[in-house]
Amino acid sequence: GAVVSQHPSWVICKSGTSVKIECRSLDFQATTMFWYRQFPKQSLMLMATSNEGSKATYEQGVEKDKFLINHASLTLSTLTVTSAHPEDSSFYICSAPNRDQEQFFGPGTRLTVL
Amino acid sequence: AQSVAQPEDQVNVAEGNPLTVKCTYSVSGNPYLFWYVQYPNRGLQFLLKYITGDNLVKGSYGFEAEFNKSQTSFHLKKPSALVSDSALYFCAVRDMVGTALIFGKGTTLSVSS
Predict the structure, then answer these.
(1) Residue A90: closest CA among chain B residues belongs to which residue?
(2) pLDDT tens, A98-108?
(3) In this complex, do A107 and B43 lie within 8 Å of one another by their Cβ atoms?
């Protein structure tokens, strides 16, 4: 089946720094990718829809200047957490649908902000 | 707006017994329904989906789910639970092609030996 990768798988950073997370579709092209956030033992909350070649669509309550999304190619979307703070610590998961609209999820990125 | 409800935070079952994890949904159009499993600190693994066709859907690892339109339910079932089935299970829905999945809060399945 299709594979979606994320890099890094985990990252620890100091408060105030920015962190970039990559999401790649390895064997298919995705004009749309989705970014989710998951707190421990909780559900996945949709943060934004990443659209190749255009601006991302953010869910209500998600700060677009805080969580910068860039979808520069058909296989890569990046999420940058700017000026990260401890409350941004979470598990970030991306997903991408293939042309048959099957959703494939990345393995997730664990962000810890000290 | 779409929504998914998983009424049970935790389901406990003995190994070898049948298991059911409940899910109800609300969508404005025809539902696309999914079940995923998540092990600690891991991503989501796809179990099965309902798009159209037979109401009983068979998926990975011996799991199945039954789509019930009148009850707007999509319960996950397995005839004989394994200890290795212990994990966090998510039901998800979308009502349009190309849109994101909306997830339920998740149900922790604990299978005891």
Answers:
(1) B41
(2) 877 778 899 99
(3) yes
